[in-house]
């Protein structure tokens, strides 16, 4: 009896060690590729899809990953150090972009405002406008505008992402779809040479895509470093936006795509 108990305890400890090692390797894989499917986890680690799902659920409870349809991605798609670097990089250009965007926003407009450092610069510039109604899933942007304006501000409920104050949950898209916007202001991680708009977080892309579908006009605010850069998750095409506000002209290939799509180009 005693030997049987010892054997079970030893087997349980080995299983725990295997699970811990597997989850550590899984996190390393996610750090490298941002997203992984249930099927890939099962194949890579020689486990059942049920075990793969349990690993993802446990890592989600620990706040390390976010479950998506058929897989998972890192809870923080952008590392804190990277976000701090982005706030410093091209900060003057982003301020100019923000000021130009504010010039294009009419007083009293209903506006969707994306998250990210460029959209934070836009938010700072929007204080020159009056009577705006703003929907954003950025707690940083909402808190700033609440302090310095009398705008009507709405944000979805959910968990706050520590790295940048983004608020996300499965119902975010449903929340956004309840509004109609005069203007959706968004930014992306990159515009590649084929004219695809890309970002690094699937949940953000889905929320932004919903806002675009419920907006009369769409404005893309990006600094010149984003041209020729490819994001992980495809948001859409250049032709899906009405205006691009940037700090310098795009390279010739992308500029041609902008012109062919009839997109307005504004330089800040």
Give the CATH topology of the largest domain.
Rossmann fold
What overall geometry do the principal axes of the alpha carbons give?
globular
Radius of gyration: 22 Å
Broad structural category: alpha/beta
Total helices: the number is 10
The oligomeric state is single chain
Largest sheet: 7 strands, parallel
What topology, given as strand order, has the largest sheet?
6-5-4-9-12-14-15
Low-confidence stretches are 5-14
CATH class of the largest domain: Alpha Beta
Number of domains: 2
Helix content: 40-55%
Just name the CATH architecture of the largest domain: 3-Layer(aba) Sandwich
Keywords: DNA-binding, Repressor, Transcription, Transcription regulation
GO molecular function, one term: DNA-binding transcription factor activity
Domain HTH deoR-type: 19-74
Organism: Allosediminivita pacifica
